[in-house]
Amino acid sequence: MKKIGIFGATGSVGVQTVHIAEKNPDKLRVTVLTCGRNTELFRTQLRKLKPALAVVSAEQAGESTIQALAKEFPRTEFLAGSDGLAQAAEKGDYDVMLNAISGIAGLVPTWRAICGGKDIALANKETIVTGGEFVMAESRKRGLSIIPVDSEHSAIFQCLQSGPATAVARILLCGSGGPFRGYTEERLNGVTVRQALTHPNWKMGRKITVDSATMMNKGLELIETGRLFGIAEDRIEIVIQPQSIIHSMVEYADGAVIAQLGSPDMKGPISYALSFPERWPADVAPLDFRKLSGLDFEPPDEKTFSCLRLAREAMRAGGSSPIALNAANEILVQLFLEGKIRFLDIQKHLERTMDLHVQTAAPDVGSILRIDAEVRARVMERVHRACSA
Fold this sequence. Notes:
Elements: E1 2-7, H1 12-23, E2 28-35, H2 39-49, E3 53-56, H3 63-72, E4 77-80, H4 81-91, E5 96-99, H5 107-115, E6 119-122, H6 125-141, E7 146-148, H7 151-159, E8 168-175, H8 185-188, H9 193-196, H10 206-214, H11 216-229, E9 236-240, E10 246-252, E11 257-261, H12 267-275, H13 307-317, H14 321-337, H15 343-356, H16 365-388
Parallel strand pairs: 1-2, 1-5, 2-3, 3-4, 5-6, 6-7, 8-9
Antiparallel strand pairs: 8-10, 10-11
């Protein structure tokens, strides 16, 4: 029996993790549960799982919300805000954190969980993109595991079980190409929020779905791949696999390529991260090879989707560059979702941000959060000026 903490329980990955926990009551016990703003869904999850500790992290939730929940669930201890989230991450009674928090907000809970001696099942790529160097080093120092939940990194992790790290020739990071695969820049100019939120294969949260549409998701995954597995940027190749059946591949020194295949369903990698080194039955549709019409492969279009190029450049630069890239992207995606900028404005403002960014060191969580806040403020100011012109 593993005691798990689901951080970000009301998001897409969190909801699927709750489903897996309900399907495996003899293997998993949820002792910590957190949400952001969706307290109605959270109430349903609390009734089902009855955790010992729960957190509503949205600062605007208010004391009245916490009091109402505490009254409704008297056997659960409630904490609030980012401080409550950090406290639960470090001090909560659980063995494995499933971090499904969206964006940079997932960094501090991951760090505090590592400080508290917890293993991590990580769906929050921003932790590794912004703080991967010291996060990975500290987890190794403490003998803790960080097992990726993203389908691509789960696939790489699984493929790496086939041989020693020293024998890896390259990693082939796969992606679907998103809803606008094959579009020209001219065609992208008029795409809407609704179109960007319609992914051909995956059901995901709004932010990551837009990232998939701009291809920034693959750019962030490129940086994450290098830091999770200690692989240089020039040994990571992005491959477009439109059917989302091959999730990623690893090529070894002898020429063998090991691929991980599966239905495009996040319950598979979530289940693997929680069951490792075992494999539990997962509620995922098996592949029917008789019905597969084919598996296609394409190179990415880094000219039209310049987010990929910007991510490679940030990875090569290191230091604060990945932090700036992630911060600018988060705020720009939110502005796009709010209808305040156009789709192509995301990569236009990202390029400008990276051109103007002054490289600095970021040796700890505090430095990362400071750089993140500064970049966000500068991006907001530039967008405001551009909209007012």
